[in-house]
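Structure in, sequence out. Go:
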């Protein structure tokens, strides 16, 4: 099915974590197709620069505005949702992309507070977006909510700590929400990216065994781009996906068909072989 140019014209969409990486890629694709997009994040200067890049890349499509927000703070989420209503008076979609990792290592050395921090950022942050955005989509007669999962939420990623758990939680949240909101024509789906060339992934040296394990386990080889994820988000916001809800779509060059990455060589020097195999640290 071909899509009309400007197919999202008149639709308002919130993209959390829209100032960098995948979030910026999603916002760019949505604006290019006519949407009125609000991006949010924690740093004003990053958002301002991203908004300029997005509008320039999108050309004469829709529009983009930005607002500082912290998705782990409920008042902040409520405020940015209200801001996203301003361009059109309604809300048609949300891409809950804000998130992150941290606290990597074998389970015997994981710190409880860091584990909880990652869960708060990824799971609670997504839940608060659902809580405050979905009722506006119900009021608009329907809408589309996209939760950002990860290959790590499906394929084992040893030593990734809370990140894997949190992304699996987002997928289950999307399934539950699809069931709860289906009668009101609000759709919920998750996107499951593999290795995407973003600022965060630049921390993996290209000549390292870890990077090689990503490439070797990706049937198509290479890595994806933020724009690839953006086009999928655009599809899930549009009418072409009107009968798709409660699912998770891989965008990983086929990596989900094989094993997860090997971060052992990256982490073992800090802890030693024994701890990596389950021993308590001395």
């Amino acid at each position: 099915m071909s899509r009309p140019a400007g197919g999202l014209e008149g639709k308002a969409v919130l993209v959390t974590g829209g100032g960098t990486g995948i979030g910026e890629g999603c916002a760019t694709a949505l604006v290019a197709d006519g949407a009125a997009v609000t991006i949010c994040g924690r740093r004003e200067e990053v958002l301002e620069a991203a908004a300029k890049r997005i509008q320039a890349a999108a050309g004469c499509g829709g529009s983009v505005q930005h607002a500082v927000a912290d998705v782990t703070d409920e008042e902040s989420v409520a405020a940015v949702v209200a801001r996203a209503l301003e361009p059109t008076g309604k809300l048609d979609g949300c891409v809950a992309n804000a998130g992150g990792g941290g606290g990597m290592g074998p389970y015997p050395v994981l710190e409880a507070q860091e584990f909880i921090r990652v869960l708060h950022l990824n799971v609670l942050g997504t839940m608060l977006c659902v809580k405050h955005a979905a009722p506006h989509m119900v009021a608009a007669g329907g809408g589309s909510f996209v939760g950002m999962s990860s290959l790590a939420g499906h394929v084992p990623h040893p030593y990734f700590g809370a990140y894997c758990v949190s992304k699996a939680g987002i997928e289950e949240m999307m399934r539950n929400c699809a069931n709860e909101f289906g009668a009101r024509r609000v759709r919920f789906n998750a996107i499951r990216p593999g290795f995407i060339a973003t600022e965060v992934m630049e921390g993996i040296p290209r000549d390292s065994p870890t990077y090689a394990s990503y490439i070797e386990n990706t049937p198509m080889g290479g890595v994806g781009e933020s724009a690839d994820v953006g086009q999928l988000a655009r599809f899930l916001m549009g009418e072409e996906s009107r009968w798709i809800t409660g699912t998770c779509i891989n965008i990983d060059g086929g990596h989900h068909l094989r094993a997860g990455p090997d971060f052992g060589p990256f982490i073992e020097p800090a802890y030693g072989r024994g701890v990596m195999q389950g021993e308590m640290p001395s």
